[in-house]
Amino acid sequence: MTTALFVVSEEGYWGEECAEPLTMLEAAGVDVTVATPSGGTPVVDERSVDPENVGEETAEFAMEVHEENEAINSPVPLATVDADDYDTVVFPGGHGTEWDVNQDRDARRLLRDTVAGPDGTALVVCHAVGILAFTRETDGSLLVDGRDVTGFPNAWEAGIVDEDDRMPDGRKLPYWVEDEVKAAGGNWDAQLDADSSVTVDGDLITARGPGSSAAAGETLLAELGVETPEA
């Protein structure tokens, strides 16, 4: 059986970016495990389940998965998992990842080992793409250097934070994903003119944001050689 590990934030993951690929993989028969930095239950970004912000259908779907999905509600600590035990490791986005997942050494270990291994495939979505700027290969080089990637663009971030980089909830955003990934050598193209943006570079798949969640899941299933379930 194909296995997947989802690395989910305890500081605020974006509902659709986790729920869409997770349910898609489960429907295709993939065995999904969820891990969080401390092993605590993931925290969903309230804006991602606000009908006024994302629409009633998306909000209801994301909240239902958040509240009822068995894997999400029985996470394991990141330090206890090994990339070799999974066919794919998925990093859903959300601003919260900037405070925990992207800075977590075990999360970076999982990403490095997945991409470096002979069989693994990693999917990194939206703000979680920031982890690429802080993940190093075993020789010390930056994992993203020279790789083609997409992710949450500065053009969108500018419409969320204020002039002091404060989020709507008052927290100061530590960094902008596009800036850090480009500085680390990533070949950045968020394809702002396209409805969705998913980039495949070897064993690394990156996706731009919420609107690319379904395409990201479909791309991951294709890369894994798992048949996409019919809608």
Structure characterization notes:
This protein is α/β, with parallel strands linked by helices. The chain has one domain (3-224): Class I glutamine amidotransferase (GATase) domain (Rossmann fold), CATH 3.40.50.880. The protein is built from seven helices and nine strands, in the order βαβααββαββααβββα. The strands form two sheets. Strands 3-2-1-4-5-9-8 form a seven-stranded mixed beta sheet, sandwiched between helices. The mean pLDDT is 95.
Query: What is the tally of helical segments?
Result: 7
| Helix coverage percent | 25-40%
Shape: globular
- Structural domains: how many: 1
- The computed structural class is alpha/beta
Low-confidence stretches: none
Q: So, the CATH homologous superfamily? A: Class I glutamine amidotransferase (GATase) domain
Query: Distance between the terminal alpha carbons, to the nearest Å?
Result: 21 Å
N-to-C order of helices and strands: EHEHHEEHEEHHEEEH
Question: Widest sheet: strand order?
Answer: 3-2-1-4-5-9-8
CATH class: Alpha Beta
Main sheet overview: 7 strands, mixed
The average pLDDT value, as a whole number, equals 95
Strand content: 5-15%
Q: What is the CATH architecture descriptor?
A: 3-Layer(aba) Sandwich
